[in-house]
Predict the structure.
Amino acid sequence: MARTDNPGQIAPQKIEAIQEELKATEDVSQRLHLYMKLVDELQKSDIPHAIEICIEAVELARQVNAKNDGGNAGEMADCLFHLAMLYARSGNYLKTISIISESLPLIEETKNRFLQARACNVTGVAYGSLGNYSEALDYFMRALKIFRELGDQCWEAGVLNNIGHLYWQLHNPTWALMYLKLSLDLAEKQTDKSLQGDICETLCAVYQDNDDCDTSLGYGLRALALYQETGNKHAEAEAYDSIGDVYQRQDASSKALEYYQKALELSQETGHNHEEIEALLRIGKYFIGQEQFDAARENLERALEIATRLEIKHNIYECHEALMKLDKLCGDYQLALEHSEKHFYYYCQVHNEEQSVRIQSLAARFQLETMQKDAEIYRLKNAALQDEINLRKKAQENLRLHATKDHLTGLNNRYYFFELAEESYRQAETDNLPLSIIMIDTDNFKMVNDQYGHAAGDVVLQKLADTMQSSLRKGDIVARYGGDEFVILLPGTGASHASEVAERLRKMVDTQTFQVEQYQIHISISMGISFYDRQMTENLRTMLKQADMAMYEAKQSGRNRVQLWVKE
């Protein structure tokens, strides 16, 4: 769990007392103070309401600031920071970055280093959650440096936990465990039970990914107990989901569902919309695995409705992706295609918005850097600290590589594929060059997982990836598109040659078996091909849609075949 702030225990009586004070107070400064006290209490149990009150506090602070000719920058900065933190806790990370960018110049003006460090930390959480790992690490390192200079070991432990969480997202368990154990040692000395819970939950996830489910479950249950002891229901809901994931991995499906449902109940109780969506997604995917398709659809559509209403776009495309898989299993390929199109549409929107927000935040970020410039110049003169900078640059380069590759197959990941494909498409469009796309779906892959286990299924996907990689030219681009689906981009290649490439690959896969432990596993693949045509092709999305349609036609026609998209 990424750490922003500890919300503490719920105190309904305090909320009522503050609300009574507000009714009786006309003084603007006093009302602003009471608004922020109310936000502190509401965030423990009702995040949407806390956001509403905090927005009112921000507007009130703007009025006070305007009347005093900017003399209340500290109050304004504090209100904006708390609003950004609340958006982060609700899962709206794009809004978090936008608000933080507005607050950074004001925070600089206050020269409040503790608030600067907290702002860097929550910005790191937001960037990490959006998949911008290099930027996230940069902000975490800034926060860590300031907290160490301030001697605040509790917050130092919190940032170390966030860095460990970041390396877990990058599937680097060695570095993740190193930072997390440092973090837990510090947190236990500070007796901060909520922070200890955050670290234990992250350790639960890391050990789960390492297939050490017993250790993972131990940390998950410890995190849950700590959250229950501190009354942190927001975090308790996330812990229920984490424990459910462990049970799911242990094939204890009914136990997993029990914990997912507890997570759902708590998230609904606390108004934690992002966690409610996550719980519904997990429950929906659980029912897909159990082939209870009606129950799966009900939960996934509820998740989609909430995500759409709140415009949490990364959750929207996750819901469409899950519904696409559900419809494929149900044999409704037309509806699956519709969800596939929406999934791709929202995925591109999120990607574009992330880039836009990042550009908007650069100016504020450089202002913060200016404040630290003199100290940084002096620090760089120290040879030992120069070595630290070099190591950090190397670590950031390592992060960049992790961010472009699929951790299971070693192929390009979906995010990086879109970057490469957009560049190739622009070149084809500008110079009227041939360009083709092959969409690939592994036939009946669920049967492989069911018969041989998910670990064997992962090995099959790795070997299939190696086969594809070895059969392509140096300039061709192959990526894991998601699950058991892959995509190949063939620059400078027309439809005829693309068909030959696809047919050659299909035969290679069909005529070999994959040795996985004692098993000889045979699979086949279905492929759809689209090609660039200046008269018919509108954009890259059109080509991907056409290849997807052709692939569905190949599957409907009996699988283990290649289908070229043809305009009807």
About this structure: The CA atoms of residues 344 and 351 lie 11 Å apart. Confidence is low (pLDDT under 50) at residues 357-368. The longest strand covers residues 435-442. The radius of gyration is 26 Å.
